[in-house]
Amino acid sequence: MDVVRKIMESVERADIKRLNLTSYFDPEERVVLEAFVKELVEGLRLFEEEMKAEEEEEEEAAKENSSEVHKEGSDTLMI
Length: 79
Known about the structure:
Layout: H1 2-14, H2 27-75
């Protein structure tokens, strides 16, 4: 037990941070990380909106093309 006590005292004197599963960030690092995450989330949201708008435009264009083909096809006479 004496060895463990000496190790604990030396660690406390050295002011070493304990290793655990939670990450440690300086306050400045945390601010930068939070700003980065916020911008990343916003960028992904905008990208998804753009992709959804493009898909809707493609669907509308496909519907218009198919309706034009049906209109043109009804004018032709089949023999």
